[in-house]
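## retry 2 of 3
previous attempt timed out at serialization; input unchanged, resubmitting
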Amino acid sequence: MSDEWYTPSWLFETMGLHFDLDVAAPSTGSPWVGASSFYSIEDDALIQPWSGKVWMNPPYSKPAPWVEKWLHHGNGIALLPMAKSRWFNELMESNAHFTILPSNFKFNSPQGKPISLMMGSMLWAIGDDNVQAISKFGKVR
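## retry succeeded, writing output
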C-alpha cells in the first residue's frame, strides 16, 4: 500500500490559512496546500528543522515519529487517522485540539482520483488560529 494520499484542495480553501512549511509533501511540492516551503521524502523532514505554521499529512504507515516532532514543534495542523496506538494516546493527552472529519472524507491519489481509508480521519491543531481553522469542519475538542 502506498503512502501517497494527498489532501484535497477544498480542505485548505475551507481553512483559509497560509502555512510556512508542508513537512510531508510530494516530491514536486503541493501548491494546493498554500505553504511557503516544503519537505518531500527526499529531504527527510524528520531530520530537518521545522519553523512557523506547519501543515502535516504524514505517511500513515509510520506516523509515530511525525506526531512526536509535530507535538514538540507546537504550531500547526496535522491530518491523521484514528488509530489504536501509543502515538494516538499521546495526542489525546497533549494540548492539541481535534475535530473528526466526515466519514465520507476522501483523499486524492497521485493520479487525482478520490480514495478513502477504512478508518476515520481527524484534523489536529496547536495554536489559536489553527484551532479556529479546524473548527470550520465541526466541533473541536
